[in-house]
Design goal:
It is a single chain. Helix content is 29%, strand content 24%. The chain has 434 residues and is an alpha/beta fold. The longest helix is centred in the middle third of the chain and has 17 residues. The radius of gyration is 21 Å and the shape is globular.
């Protein structure tokens, strides 16, 4: 492969939350690394053959890291492949996907971790790091070989869509993972309390005649896991916090010095239970969309640092699993292409600052996972996005890149669009209005 020409991204607003940087400036990329960043970079000349990318009036930021991406490969390629998911990611400014182990077969063996890496190398245009399953077959009973899986490249260990409900197994996993400094990620939802519930328990569920899921299902599991972290001191991440009471549990754990972090999905930051409307199944989520009060509570928790990470919770479902009565439809929605655009809604409404939302999608996931990316620091990999924070656009179904089309933002109006996405210094996506 011929050497890449140097690239100067010129005249943009450079925002790098990892360094608390928000200044007008330029970014010079040489090879696959960031060479220099600053207001005067390139003004005194650039390397021969340098390509200029005009970013005037645009924001230049680190590529996004999405910590919760479900991909159908292997086993359900009709819903999504690593190739199609990576194209959707690039269009949304996501340069690193952390994939979940809920595949067929479940990612519970080093050979399967290697399979994901090989498929990603051959077909994906963004970086892919797989999480492996906490238990064999994802059944919640027998621990996987964390040391061998980590050696094979598993970046963390997750229960995926379903909570690891056996407290003794979770205790053993946290203890075992601690010796490898491995991150344990759990779905914070008590299955017995969820029961047959399909949306947030409350007045809206009663009015729609749908069985509800109480907030306590999430709070109790979070409290249980925090207690087990206190026993074991293993590194722990709560996958998606959807209500204010759970955020308080996480805040107390952090105040007590426990090695705990937590995420929130962009859907729970920007949507609420009322969006379900006339039984719209694309709004059927797990955890369910909560009340408007809870939405504001998790925004507050993001702002004060209680919640570390914003995820898309990208979960492709085909028409056969969504075209059902609400109670029978599968949970989940796609989100790679809209995570940043939806997050900018919080910025435009002044519910959060640009630095806050970008930090939760760049610097914090990189720190939690031990990645080199997520920053514009010179010497680091050149994973960069350029976006116009004010460009208006409509998310039309025919323009969706993902194989599945189950988005809660169909025909949604956004202000803010990714124009260029770079991975390792290569432009893997450029927006065209044509």
């Amino acid at each position: 492969m011929p050497d890449q020409a140097p690239l100067l991204i010129k005249g943009g607003r450079v925002v790098d939350p990892a360094r608390d940087l928000d200044v007008p400036g330029n970014v010079l990329v040489v090879g696959d690394r960031i060479a220099d960043v600053g207001p005067n970079v390139g003004n005194d000349g650039t390397p021969n053959g340098t390509t200029i990318l005009d970013a005037k009036g645009k924001i230049v930021a680190p590529g996004l890291i999405d910590m919760r991406v479900f991909v159908g490969e292997p086993g359900h390629e009709h819903r999504e492949t690593l190739a199609s998911a990576s194209k959707a990611a690039a269009a949304g400014g996501v340069t690193t996907m952390i994939t979940m182990p809920d595949t067929d077969p479940v990612i519970d063996d080093p050979a399967l971790v290697d399979f994901i890496f090989r498929r990603a190398r051959d077909t994906a245009i963004v970086r892919v790091h797989p999480m492996a399953a906490l238990t064999k077959g994802g059944l919640g009973r027998e621990m996987t070989e964390i040391g061998l899986l980590q050696e094979a490249g598993a970046i963390a260990f997750s229960a995926g869509r379903h909570a690891l409900f056996d407290a003794q197994v979770m205790r053993r996993l946290l203890t075992y993972a601690r010796d490898f400094n491995a991150l344990v990620v759990n779905r914070i939802e008590e299955p017995a309390l969820v029961g047959g519930g399909v949306m947030n328990e409350g007045e809206t569920a009663s009015r729609l005649g749908l069985p509800g899921i109480p907030r306590e299902a999430e709070v109790i599991m979070a409290e249980r896991d925090i207690r087990l972290v206190g026993l074991t001191r293993g590194r722990y991440h709560a996958d998606i916090v959807s209500c204010g009471e759970t955020a308080r549990v996480i805040a107390n754990a952090k105040a007590g010095g426990l090695p705990v972090t937590a995420g929130v999905s962009i859907n729970h930051l920007t949507l609420n239970e009322n969006d379900i409307g006339a039984y719209r199944t694309f709004f059927k989520q797990s955890p369910p969309l909560r009340s408007e009060d809870d939405r504001h509570a998790v925004i507050d928790a993001l702002n004060d640092g209680t919640l570390d990470v914003i995820v898309s919770n990208h979960d492709p479902q085909d028409v056969e699993t969504k075209r059902h009565p609400f109670a029978e439809a599968a949970d989940g929605a796609i989100g790679l292409e809209t995570m940043l655009a939806a997050a900018l809604r919080l910025v435009h409404s002044e519910d959060a600052t640009l630095t806050t939302v970008l930090r939760a999608m760049t610097a914090r996931p990189a720190q939690i996972l031990g990645l080199e990316t997520g920053t514009l620091t010179p010497g680091r990999p050149a994973d960069i996005i350029v976006f116009d924070p004010d460009m208006p656009w409509i998310y039309e179904q025919e323009a969706i890149t993902s194989r599945s089309k189950n988005t809660p933002f169909e025909a949604g109006r956004f202000s803010g669009r990714v124009l260029h996405t770079l991975v390792a210094g290569n432009v893997v996506y450029s927006y065209s209005s044509q």
